[in-house]
Automatic annotation (TrEMBL):
It catalyses: 2 reduced [adrenodoxin] + NADP(+) + H(+) = 2 oxidized [adrenodoxin] + NADPH. PANTHER family: GLUTAMATE SYNTHASE 1 [NADH], CHLOROPLASTIC-LIKE. This is NADPH:adrenodoxin oxidoreductase, mitochondrial. FAD binds at A41, L70, L106, W417, G424, I425, I426. It holds the Pfam family Pyr_redox_2. Gene3D superfamilies: FAD/NAD(P)-binding domain (3.50.50.60), NAD(P)-binding Rossmann-like Domain (3.40.50.720). GO terms for molecular function: oxidoreductase activity. The lineage of its organism: Eukaryota, Viridiplantae, Streptophyta, Embryophyta, Marchantiophyta. GO terms for cellular component: mitochondrion.
Length: 515
Protein backbone atom coordinates (compact mmCIF):
# COMPACT_ATOMS: atom_id res chain seq x y z
CA UNK A 1 0.00 0.00 0.00
CA UNK A 2 2.78 2.41 0.97
CA UNK A 3 4.37 1.53 -2.40
CA UNK A 4 1.25 2.69 -4.28
CA UNK A 5 1.24 6.03 -2.45
CA UNK A 6 4.92 6.40 -3.24
CA UNK A 7 4.33 5.74 -6.97
CA UNK A 8 1.56 8.35 -7.12
CA UNK A 9 3.78 10.77 -5.29
CA UNK A 10 6.67 10.21 -7.72
CA UNK A 11 4.38 10.90 -10.67
CA UNK A 12 3.28 14.17 -9.11
CA UNK A 13 6.81 15.18 -8.30
CA UNK A 14 7.60 14.98 -12.02
CA UNK A 15 4.73 17.27 -12.79
CA UNK A 16 5.54 19.85 -10.14
CA UNK A 17 7.84 22.76 -10.95
CA UNK A 18 10.24 24.50 -8.54
CA UNK A 19 8.81 27.97 -9.02
CA UNK A 20 7.30 29.86 -6.09
CA UNK A 21 3.75 28.69 -5.76
CA UNK A 22 0.77 31.03 -5.50
CA UNK A 23 -1.75 29.01 -3.54
CA UNK A 24 -3.46 30.99 -0.81
CA UNK A 25 -1.95 34.26 -1.97
CA UNK A 26 -4.70 35.93 -3.94
CA UNK A 27 -7.39 35.96 -1.28
CA UNK A 28 -7.39 37.58 2.12
CA UNK A 29 -6.59 34.26 3.74
CA UNK A 30 -2.99 33.21 3.08
CA UNK A 31 -1.79 29.65 3.54
CA UNK A 32 -1.24 29.21 7.27
CA UNK A 33 1.65 26.91 8.12
CA UNK A 34 2.98 25.84 11.49
CA UNK A 35 6.40 24.22 11.92
CA UNK A 36 6.83 22.54 15.31
CA UNK A 37 10.49 22.51 16.33
CA UNK A 38 13.09 25.19 15.65
CA UNK A 39 16.16 23.05 15.07
CA UNK A 40 17.88 22.73 11.69
CA UNK A 41 15.09 20.60 10.18
CA UNK A 42 12.45 23.13 11.30
CA UNK A 43 14.33 26.20 10.09
CA UNK A 44 15.37 24.71 6.74
CA UNK A 45 11.73 23.73 6.21
CA UNK A 46 10.46 27.19 7.14
CA UNK A 47 12.98 28.81 4.80
CA UNK A 48 11.98 26.59 1.88
CA UNK A 49 8.26 27.06 2.58
CA UNK A 50 8.66 30.84 2.55
CA UNK A 51 10.41 30.57 -0.81
CA UNK A 52 7.91 28.17 -2.36
CA UNK A 53 4.75 29.93 -1.04
CA UNK A 54 5.64 33.58 -1.37
CA UNK A 55 2.98 35.01 0.92
CA UNK A 56 2.28 32.10 3.21
CA UNK A 57 2.47 32.76 6.93
CA UNK A 58 4.92 30.42 8.60
CA UNK A 59 4.89 30.14 12.40
CA UNK A 60 7.64 28.25 14.18
CA UNK A 61 6.78 26.77 17.58
CA UNK A 62 9.34 25.45 20.06
CA UNK A 63 8.97 24.05 23.56
CA UNK A 64 11.93 26.12 24.79
CA UNK A 65 12.09 29.92 24.79
CA UNK A 66 15.38 29.62 22.88
CA UNK A 67 15.34 28.55 19.22
CA UNK A 68 17.79 26.48 17.10
CA UNK A 69 17.36 23.04 18.74
CA UNK A 70 20.35 20.82 18.15
CA UNK A 71 22.54 23.70 16.94
CA UNK A 72 22.30 25.26 20.40
CA UNK A 73 21.89 22.14 22.55
CA UNK A 74 23.62 19.42 20.53
CA UNK A 75 26.65 20.85 18.72
CA UNK A 76 29.73 20.67 20.94
CA UNK A 77 30.90 23.98 22.40
CA UNK A 78 34.33 23.55 20.80
CA UNK A 79 32.73 23.39 17.32
CA UNK A 80 31.71 27.05 16.90
CA UNK A 81 32.02 26.91 13.11
CA UNK A 82 29.06 24.49 13.00
CA UNK A 83 26.90 27.06 14.78
CA UNK A 84 27.34 29.76 12.13
CA UNK A 85 24.14 28.47 10.51
CA UNK A 86 22.30 30.33 13.31
CA UNK A 87 22.83 33.55 11.31
CA UNK A 88 20.90 32.06 8.40
CA UNK A 89 18.11 30.83 10.69
CA UNK A 90 17.91 34.28 12.34
CA UNK A 91 17.34 35.87 8.92
CA UNK A 92 14.51 33.41 8.30
CA UNK A 93 12.89 34.13 11.69
CA UNK A 94 13.14 37.88 11.09
CA UNK A 95 11.53 37.70 7.67
CA UNK A 96 8.17 39.38 7.26
CA UNK A 97 6.00 36.29 6.97
CA UNK A 98 7.64 34.28 9.75
CA UNK A 99 6.76 34.32 13.46
CA UNK A 100 8.27 32.47 16.40
CA UNK A 101 6.38 31.10 19.40
CA UNK A 102 8.92 29.90 21.99
CA UNK A 103 8.07 28.16 25.26
CA UNK A 104 5.02 26.46 23.73
CA UNK A 105 4.76 22.73 24.42
CA UNK A 106 2.75 20.28 22.37
CA UNK A 107 0.36 18.30 24.58
CA UNK A 108 0.74 20.83 27.40
CA UNK A 109 0.03 24.27 25.96
CA UNK A 110 -1.68 23.04 22.81
CA UNK A 111 -2.60 19.68 21.35
CA UNK A 112 -1.69 18.58 17.87
CA UNK A 113 -5.40 18.35 17.06
CA UNK A 114 -5.95 21.97 18.12
CA UNK A 115 -2.93 23.07 16.09
CA UNK A 116 -4.26 21.29 12.99
CA UNK A 117 -7.53 23.15 13.41
CA UNK A 118 -5.64 26.45 13.27
CA UNK A 119 -3.30 25.79 10.33
CA UNK A 120 -3.73 24.47 6.78
CA UNK A 121 -0.38 22.72 7.16
CA UNK A 122 1.44 21.47 10.25
CA UNK A 123 5.02 20.22 9.87
CA UNK A 124 6.47 18.32 12.82
CA UNK A 125 10.19 18.90 13.23
CA UNK A 126 10.67 18.34 16.95
CA UNK A 127 13.47 15.81 16.54
CA UNK A 128 14.60 13.12 18.95
CA UNK A 129 14.67 14.19 22.58
CA UNK A 130 14.98 10.84 24.27
CA UNK A 131 17.37 7.89 24.21
CA UNK A 132 17.50 4.35 22.93
CA UNK A 133 17.87 1.92 25.77
CA UNK A 134 20.20 -1.07 26.02
CA UNK A 135 17.72 -3.28 27.83
CA UNK A 136 20.39 -4.74 30.10
CA UNK A 137 20.49 -5.03 33.90
CA UNK A 138 21.91 -2.01 35.73
CA UNK A 139 20.77 0.69 33.28
CA UNK A 140 18.94 2.49 36.10
CA UNK A 141 21.92 2.68 38.47
CA UNK A 142 23.24 6.01 39.61
CA UNK A 143 26.29 6.92 37.57
CA UNK A 144 24.61 5.78 34.34
CA UNK A 145 23.53 8.55 31.97
CA UNK A 146 22.76 8.90 28.32
CA UNK A 147 25.20 10.84 26.17
CA UNK A 148 22.29 13.10 25.17
CA UNK A 149 21.84 14.13 28.81
CA UNK A 150 25.54 14.89 29.13
CA UNK A 151 25.51 16.88 25.88
CA UNK A 152 22.48 18.84 27.09
CA UNK A 153 24.23 19.35 30.43
CA UNK A 154 27.39 20.90 29.01
CA UNK A 155 25.36 22.88 26.45
CA UNK A 156 23.07 24.40 29.08
CA UNK A 157 19.79 22.79 28.01
CA UNK A 158 17.32 23.67 30.80
CA UNK A 159 16.23 20.01 31.18
CA UNK A 160 19.72 18.80 32.16
CA UNK A 161 21.24 21.65 34.15
CA UNK A 162 20.87 19.62 37.33
CA UNK A 163 22.04 16.31 35.89
CA UNK A 164 23.78 14.49 38.77
CA UNK A 165 26.91 13.86 36.72
CA UNK A 166 29.59 12.93 39.23
CA UNK A 167 33.05 13.51 37.75
CA UNK A 168 34.79 13.54 41.13
CA UNK A 169 34.17 10.12 42.66
CA UNK A 170 35.81 8.10 39.92
CA UNK A 171 38.74 8.35 37.56
CA UNK A 172 37.26 6.05 34.90
CA UNK A 173 34.34 6.49 32.53
CA UNK A 174 33.00 4.02 29.97
CA UNK A 175 31.22 5.40 26.93
CA UNK A 176 29.13 2.84 25.06
CA UNK A 177 28.97 3.44 21.30
CA UNK A 178 31.51 4.86 18.90
CA UNK A 179 29.48 7.42 16.94
CA UNK A 180 30.24 11.13 16.73
CA UNK A 181 28.18 11.90 19.83
CA UNK A 182 30.34 9.44 21.82
CA UNK A 183 33.44 11.20 20.49
CA UNK A 184 32.01 14.63 21.38
CA UNK A 185 31.39 13.54 24.97
CA UNK A 186 34.79 11.86 25.31
CA UNK A 187 36.50 14.97 23.92
CA UNK A 188 34.75 17.26 26.40
CA UNK A 189 35.76 14.96 29.29
CA UNK A 190 39.38 14.71 28.15
CA UNK A 191 40.25 18.05 26.57
CA UNK A 192 42.26 20.54 28.66
CA UNK A 193 39.67 22.64 30.49
CA UNK A 194 41.55 25.82 29.56
CA UNK A 195 40.67 25.14 25.91
CA UNK A 196 36.98 24.78 26.74
CA UNK A 197 36.79 27.82 29.00
CA UNK A 198 36.75 30.19 26.03
CA UNK A 199 33.85 28.40 24.30
CA UNK A 200 30.12 28.83 24.99
CA UNK A 201 30.14 25.78 27.30
CA UNK A 202 27.88 26.35 30.30
CA UNK A 203 29.25 27.71 33.52
CA UNK A 204 28.16 24.73 35.66
CA UNK A 205 29.87 22.34 33.23
CA UNK A 206 33.17 24.18 33.16
CA UNK A 207 33.16 24.29 36.98
CA UNK A 208 32.57 20.52 37.17
CA UNK A 209 35.20 19.81 34.51
CA UNK A 210 37.72 21.89 36.46
CA UNK A 211 37.21 19.58 39.43
CA UNK A 212 36.92 16.40 37.38
CA UNK A 213 38.97 13.38 38.40
CA UNK A 214 38.28 11.50 35.17
CA UNK A 215 41.61 10.32 33.81
CA UNK A 216 40.59 7.38 31.70
CA UNK A 217 37.80 7.02 29.17
CA UNK A 218 36.96 3.75 27.40
CA UNK A 219 35.08 4.10 24.12
CA UNK A 220 33.40 0.74 23.60
CA UNK A 221 32.11 -0.51 20.24
CA UNK A 222 30.26 -3.77 19.66
CA UNK A 223 31.84 -4.10 16.21
CA UNK A 224 35.34 -3.48 14.85
CA UNK A 225 37.38 -0.45 13.83
CA UNK A 226 36.24 -0.81 10.22
CA UNK A 227 32.58 -0.47 11.27
CA UNK A 228 33.00 2.36 13.82
CA UNK A 229 30.16 4.88 13.40
CA UNK A 230 32.32 7.99 13.85
CA UNK A 231 33.73 10.02 10.98
CA UNK A 232 37.41 10.61 10.23
CA UNK A 233 37.36 14.36 10.95
CA UNK A 234 35.96 13.86 14.45
CA UNK A 235 38.26 10.89 15.13
CA UNK A 236 41.32 12.86 14.01
CA UNK A 237 40.28 15.69 16.32
CA UNK A 238 40.10 13.53 19.45
CA UNK A 239 43.30 11.67 18.60
CA UNK A 240 45.01 15.06 18.38
CA UNK A 241 44.08 16.28 21.89
CA UNK A 242 47.13 17.75 23.49
CA UNK A 243 48.76 15.44 26.05
CA UNK A 244 46.21 12.64 25.56
CA UNK A 245 47.43 9.05 25.66
CA UNK A 246 45.46 7.01 23.11
CA UNK A 247 45.25 3.24 23.28
CA UNK A 248 44.14 1.02 20.42
CA UNK A 249 44.91 -2.67 20.80
CA UNK A 250 46.82 -4.12 17.87
CA UNK A 251 44.90 -7.31 18.54
CA UNK A 252 41.62 -5.60 17.61
CA UNK A 253 43.06 -4.59 14.28
CA UNK A 254 44.50 -8.06 13.82
CA UNK A 255 41.11 -9.67 14.45
CA UNK A 256 39.65 -7.37 11.88
CA UNK A 257 42.46 -8.23 9.54
CA UNK A 258 42.20 -11.97 9.86
CA UNK A 259 38.51 -12.59 10.25
CA UNK A 260 36.67 -9.72 8.73
CA UNK A 261 38.79 -7.48 6.60
CA UNK A 262 41.18 -9.87 4.94
CA UNK A 263 43.63 -7.05 5.00
CA UNK A 264 47.03 -6.09 6.21
CA UNK A 265 48.01 -2.73 7.59
CA UNK A 266 51.61 -1.80 8.34
CA UNK A 267 52.96 1.51 9.54
CA UNK A 268 56.53 2.18 8.43
CA UNK A 269 57.79 5.54 9.61
CA UNK A 270 55.01 7.97 8.76
CA UNK A 271 53.66 5.94 5.88
CA UNK A 272 50.80 3.54 6.11
CA UNK A 273 51.01 0.60 3.72
CA UNK A 274 47.99 -1.42 2.81
CA UNK A 275 48.15 -4.94 1.57
CA UNK A 276 45.00 -7.00 1.16
CA UNK A 277 42.82 -4.26 2.72
CA UNK A 278 42.34 -2.99 -0.81
CA UNK A 279 40.19 -6.02 -1.55
CA UNK A 280 37.98 -5.62 1.48
CA UNK A 281 34.45 -4.86 0.31
CA UNK A 282 33.36 -2.83 3.29
CA UNK A 283 36.26 -0.44 2.99
CA UNK A 284 36.17 -0.40 -0.77
CA UNK A 285 32.58 0.78 -0.61
CA UNK A 286 33.22 3.49 1.94
CA UNK A 287 36.14 5.89 1.82
CA UNK A 288 34.99 7.19 5.17
CA UNK A 289 35.31 3.76 6.86
CA UNK A 290 38.68 3.27 5.23
CA UNK A 291 39.94 6.61 6.56
CA UNK A 292 38.64 5.84 10.04
CA UNK A 293 40.38 2.46 9.97
CA UNK A 294 43.64 4.04 8.83
CA UNK A 295 43.47 6.46 11.76
CA UNK A 296 42.96 3.57 14.20
CA UNK A 297 45.97 1.79 12.68
CA UNK A 298 48.09 4.88 13.15
CA UNK A 299 46.88 5.31 16.73
CA UNK A 300 47.64 1.64 17.48
CA UNK A 301 51.13 1.96 16.06
CA UNK A 302 51.94 5.05 18.06
CA UNK A 303 50.43 3.66 21.28
CA UNK A 304 52.66 0.60 20.85
CA UNK A 305 55.79 2.75 20.68
CA UNK A 306 54.85 5.33 23.34
CA UNK A 307 56.48 5.24 26.77
CA UNK A 308 54.54 3.91 29.79
CA UNK A 309 51.82 6.11 31.20
CA UNK A 310 52.38 8.76 33.79
CA UNK A 311 49.43 8.43 36.17
CA UNK A 312 48.37 12.06 35.75
CA UNK A 313 48.08 11.77 31.97
CA UNK A 314 44.60 11.51 30.54
CA UNK A 315 43.96 8.36 28.60
CA UNK A 316 41.50 7.28 25.94
CA UNK A 317 41.17 3.62 25.14
CA UNK A 318 39.19 2.28 22.20
CA UNK A 319 37.66 -1.12 22.90
CA UNK A 320 36.27 -3.09 19.97
CA UNK A 321 34.16 -6.25 19.62
CA UNK A 322 32.52 -5.85 23.01
CA UNK A 323 28.78 -5.65 23.62
CA UNK A 324 27.39 -4.35 26.94
CA UNK A 325 25.80 -7.20 28.93
CA UNK A 326 25.34 -5.78 32.44
CA UNK A 327 26.17 -2.63 34.36
CA UNK A 328 27.58 -3.64 37.72
CA UNK A 329 27.20 -2.10 41.16
CA UNK A 330 28.75 -4.65 43.53
CA UNK A 331 25.76 -4.55 45.88
CA UNK A 332 25.41 -0.76 45.97
CA UNK A 333 23.22 1.56 43.90
CA UNK A 334 26.13 3.19 42.09
CA UNK A 335 28.08 1.88 39.13
CA UNK A 336 31.29 0.04 39.85
CA UNK A 337 31.90 -1.56 36.49
CA UNK A 338 30.51 -3.05 33.33
CA UNK A 339 30.29 -6.59 32.02
CA UNK A 340 30.95 -6.89 28.31
CA UNK A 341 30.40 -9.83 26.02
CA UNK A 342 33.05 -10.45 23.40
CA UNK A 343 31.63 -10.40 19.91
CA UNK A 344 32.48 -11.53 16.46
CA UNK A 345 31.05 -10.30 13.19
CA UNK A 346 28.54 -12.03 11.04
CA UNK A 347 26.88 -10.99 7.81
CA UNK A 348 27.49 -10.55 4.15
CA UNK A 349 28.20 -7.69 1.82
CA UNK A 350 24.51 -6.87 1.38
CA UNK A 351 23.24 -7.02 4.94
CA UNK A 352 26.41 -5.59 6.48
CA UNK A 353 28.39 -6.89 9.41
CA UNK A 354 26.46 -7.58 12.62
CA UNK A 355 27.95 -8.12 16.07
CA UNK A 356 27.23 -11.60 17.45
CA UNK A 357 27.98 -12.56 21.07
CA UNK A 358 30.55 -15.31 21.62
CA UNK A 359 29.42 -16.24 25.14
CA UNK A 360 32.76 -15.02 26.54
CA UNK A 361 32.61 -12.16 29.03
CA UNK A 362 34.99 -9.69 30.65
CA UNK A 363 34.60 -6.82 33.09
CA UNK A 364 35.85 -3.25 33.13
CA UNK A 365 36.01 -1.25 36.35
CA UNK A 366 34.51 2.22 36.13
CA UNK A 367 32.44 4.69 38.14
CA UNK A 368 30.56 6.27 35.24
CA UNK A 369 28.76 4.74 32.27
CA UNK A 370 27.55 6.96 29.43
CA UNK A 371 25.27 5.36 26.86
CA UNK A 372 25.84 6.84 23.42
CA UNK A 373 23.84 4.38 21.37
CA UNK A 374 21.51 6.80 19.62
CA UNK A 375 18.73 9.30 20.28
CA UNK A 376 15.02 8.42 20.19
CA UNK A 377 11.97 10.42 19.11
CA UNK A 378 8.84 10.52 21.23
CA UNK A 379 5.23 10.61 20.04
CA UNK A 380 2.65 13.23 21.01
CA UNK A 381 -1.09 12.63 21.40
CA UNK A 382 -3.03 11.88 18.21
CA UNK A 383 0.12 11.34 16.15
CA UNK A 384 0.70 8.06 14.29
CA UNK A 385 3.99 6.63 15.53
CA UNK A 386 6.12 3.65 14.61
CA UNK A 387 7.42 2.58 18.03
CA UNK A 388 9.77 -0.02 16.59
CA UNK A 389 11.61 2.42 14.35
CA UNK A 390 11.03 5.42 16.61
CA UNK A 391 9.77 7.60 13.75
CA UNK A 392 6.48 8.98 12.44
CA UNK A 393 5.37 6.77 9.54
CA UNK A 394 5.51 8.87 6.40
CA UNK A 395 5.80 8.86 2.65
CA UNK A 396 8.26 11.54 1.61
CA UNK A 397 7.29 13.60 4.64
CA UNK A 398 3.51 13.05 4.43
CA UNK A 399 2.34 11.53 7.71
CA UNK A 400 0.45 8.29 7.12
CA UNK A 401 -1.79 6.60 9.67
CA UNK A 402 0.27 3.41 9.66
CA UNK A 403 2.67 1.63 7.36
CA UNK A 404 -0.03 -1.02 6.69
CA UNK A 405 -2.94 1.20 5.66
CA UNK A 406 -0.86 4.06 4.24
CA UNK A 407 -3.75 6.53 4.54
CA UNK A 408 -2.42 10.06 4.42
CA UNK A 409 -3.18 12.48 7.27
CA UNK A 410 -4.22 15.59 5.34
CA UNK A 411 -2.11 18.67 6.06
CA UNK A 412 0.25 16.86 8.45
CA UNK A 413 3.94 16.47 7.60
CA UNK A 414 7.16 15.48 9.25
CA UNK A 415 10.82 16.33 8.73
CA UNK A 416 14.24 15.71 10.29
CA UNK A 417 15.05 13.02 12.87
CA UNK A 418 11.35 12.50 13.64
CA UNK A 419 10.91 11.55 9.97
CA UNK A 420 14.01 9.50 9.19
CA UNK A 421 15.55 8.52 12.54
CA UNK A 422 18.45 10.01 14.51
CA UNK A 423 21.19 10.05 11.89
CA UNK A 424 22.91 12.61 9.74
CA UNK A 425 24.61 15.94 10.16
CA UNK A 426 22.94 19.37 10.16
CA UNK A 427 23.22 19.66 6.37
CA UNK A 428 21.35 16.36 5.89
CA UNK A 429 18.24 18.27 6.98
CA UNK A 430 18.45 20.48 3.90
CA UNK A 431 17.70 17.53 1.63
CA UNK A 432 15.14 16.18 4.07
CA UNK A 433 13.34 19.56 4.25
CA UNK A 434 13.39 19.85 0.48
CA UNK A 435 11.56 16.53 0.14
CA UNK A 436 8.88 17.42 2.70
CA UNK A 437 8.31 20.90 1.25
CA UNK A 438 7.94 19.47 -2.26
CA UNK A 439 5.31 17.07 -0.91
CA UNK A 440 3.42 20.04 0.55
CA UNK A 441 3.60 21.88 -2.79
CA UNK A 442 2.31 18.82 -4.65
CA UNK A 443 -0.52 18.28 -2.17
CA UNK A 444 -1.71 21.88 -2.47
CA UNK A 445 -1.66 21.49 -6.27
CA UNK A 446 -3.62 18.26 -6.03
CA UNK A 447 -6.22 19.87 -3.78
CA UNK A 448 -5.35 17.61 -0.85
CA UNK A 449 -5.01 20.63 1.41
CA UNK A 450 -8.06 22.81 1.80
CA UNK A 451 -6.34 26.09 0.96
CA UNK A 452 -9.67 27.91 0.54
CA UNK A 453 -10.67 27.27 4.13
CA UNK A 454 -11.03 30.62 5.86
CA UNK A 455 -11.47 29.05 9.28
CA UNK A 456 -7.73 28.62 9.67
CA UNK A 457 -6.73 31.37 12.10
CA UNK A 458 -3.02 30.58 12.02
CA UNK A 459 -0.76 32.60 14.34
CA UNK A 460 -3.58 34.91 15.42
CA UNK A 461 -5.57 31.93 16.62
CA UNK A 462 -2.56 30.40 18.34
CA UNK A 463 -1.76 33.67 20.11
CA UNK A 464 -5.38 34.01 21.28
CA UNK A 465 -5.43 30.47 22.54
CA UNK A 466 -2.16 30.83 24.45
CA UNK A 467 -3.16 34.19 25.91
CA UNK A 468 -6.49 32.76 27.04
CA UNK A 469 -4.62 30.26 29.20
CA UNK A 470 -1.98 32.82 30.31
CA UNK A 471 0.79 30.80 28.66
CA UNK A 472 4.03 32.78 28.54
CA UNK A 473 5.18 32.37 24.96
CA UNK A 474 8.30 34.11 23.67
CA UNK A 475 8.44 35.93 20.34
CA UNK A 476 11.60 36.09 18.23
CA UNK A 477 12.09 39.71 19.23
CA UNK A 478 11.96 38.64 22.85
CA UNK A 479 14.40 35.78 22.16
CA UNK A 480 16.79 38.37 20.74
CA UNK A 481 16.71 40.21 24.06
CA UNK A 482 17.72 36.97 25.81
CA UNK A 483 20.35 36.42 23.12
CA UNK A 484 21.79 39.89 23.70
CA UNK A 485 21.95 39.24 27.44
CA UNK A 486 23.78 35.95 26.88
CA UNK A 487 26.32 37.69 24.61
CA UNK A 488 26.92 40.38 27.24
CA UNK A 489 27.35 37.80 30.03
CA UNK A 490 29.78 35.90 27.84
CA UNK A 491 31.80 38.98 26.99
CA UNK A 492 32.51 39.63 30.67
CA UNK A 493 33.99 36.13 30.95
CA UNK A 494 35.88 36.14 27.63
CA UNK A 495 33.42 33.65 26.09
CA UNK A 496 31.23 33.98 23.00
CA UNK A 497 28.14 33.69 25.24
CA UNK A 498 27.00 32.50 28.64
CA UNK A 499 23.72 30.65 28.19
CA UNK A 500 20.78 31.36 30.44
CA UNK A 501 19.86 27.88 31.58
CA UNK A 502 16.66 28.36 33.55
CA UNK A 503 13.47 28.84 31.56
CA UNK A 504 11.91 31.26 34.06
CA UNK A 505 15.07 33.41 33.97
CA UNK A 506 14.88 33.55 30.16
CA UNK A 507 11.26 34.61 30.30
CA UNK A 508 11.95 37.20 32.97
CA UNK A 509 14.73 38.74 30.90
CA UNK A 510 12.59 38.75 27.76
CA UNK A 511 9.46 40.20 29.36
CA UNK A 512 11.06 42.66 31.81
CA UNK A 513 13.07 44.34 29.11
CA UNK A 514 10.21 44.46 26.71
CA UNK A 515 7.91 46.20 29.18
P1 LIG B 1 25.35 6.83 15.64
O1 LIG B 1 26.30 7.49 14.72
O2 LIG B 1 24.22 6.08 15.05
O3 LIG B 1 26.20 5.86 16.60
C1 LIG B 1 25.56 5.02 17.51
C2 LIG B 1 26.59 4.08 18.13
O4 LIG B 1 25.91 3.29 19.10
C3 LIG B 1 27.24 3.11 17.16
O5 LIG B 1 28.57 2.89 17.52
C4 LIG B 1 26.39 1.83 17.36
O6 LIG B 1 27.06 0.65 17.04
C5 LIG B 1 26.19 1.91 18.86
N1 LIG B 1 25.05 1.12 19.32
C6 LIG B 1 23.75 1.21 18.95
N2 LIG B 1 23.00 0.32 19.61
C7 LIG B 1 23.86 -0.35 20.43
C8 LIG B 1 23.70 -1.38 21.38
N3 LIG B 1 22.50 -1.93 21.63
N4 LIG B 1 24.79 -1.84 22.03
C9 LIG B 1 26.00 -1.30 21.80
N5 LIG B 1 26.22 -0.31 20.91
C10 LIG B 1 25.16 0.15 20.24
O7 LIG B 1 24.64 7.88 16.64
P2 LIG B 1 25.18 9.19 17.37
O8 LIG B 1 26.60 9.10 17.73
O9 LIG B 1 24.17 9.43 18.42
O10 LIG B 1 25.05 10.32 16.24
C11 LIG B 1 23.79 10.65 15.65
C12 LIG B 1 24.05 11.41 14.34
O11 LIG B 1 24.54 12.71 14.61
C13 LIG B 1 25.08 10.72 13.47
O12 LIG B 1 24.70 10.78 12.12
C14 LIG B 1 26.32 11.56 13.70
O13 LIG B 1 27.26 11.52 12.65
C15 LIG B 1 25.72 12.94 13.89
N6 LIG B 1 26.65 13.79 14.65
C16 LIG B 1 27.59 14.46 13.95
C17 LIG B 1 28.51 15.23 14.62
C18 LIG B 1 29.56 15.97 13.83
O14 LIG B 1 29.46 16.00 12.61
N7 LIG B 1 30.55 16.52 14.48
C19 LIG B 1 28.49 15.31 16.00
C20 LIG B 1 27.53 14.60 16.70
C21 LIG B 1 26.61 13.84 16.01
P3 LIG B 1 26.78 -0.11 15.65
O15 LIG B 1 27.51 0.69 14.62
O16 LIG B 1 27.32 -1.45 15.87
O17 LIG B 1 25.28 -0.08 15.45
Amino acid sequence: MAGRVLAAVRLLRHQSSRRAFSVGESGANPLQICVVGSGPAGFYTAEKLLKRFRQAKVDIVDRLPSPFGLVRSGVAPDHPETKVVINQFTRVANSENCSYFGNVKLDEDITLTALRALYHVVVLAYGAESDRSLGIPGEGLSGVHSAREVVWWYNGHPDCVNLPLDLKSTDTAVILGQGNVALDVARILLRPVSELATTDISEHAIAALHESNIRKVYLVGRRGPVQAACTAKELREILGIQGLEVKVQQADLATTKLDHVSGLCVLLGDTLFFGRIAVNDEMKKSRSHKRVYELFCKAAASSATSSPLVSSVRQLQFVFYRSPAEILAAGSSTVTGIRLEKTTLSGDERSGQRAVGTGEFEELECGLVLKSIGYKSLPVRDLPFDHRKGVVPNVQGRVITSTESAAIEPGLYVVGWLKRGPTGIIGTNLICADETVESIVEDTQRGLIDVQSTSMMGGLGLKGLLEAQSAQFVSFKEWQIIDQKELELGQVKGKPREKIVVIQDMIKIAKDLVL
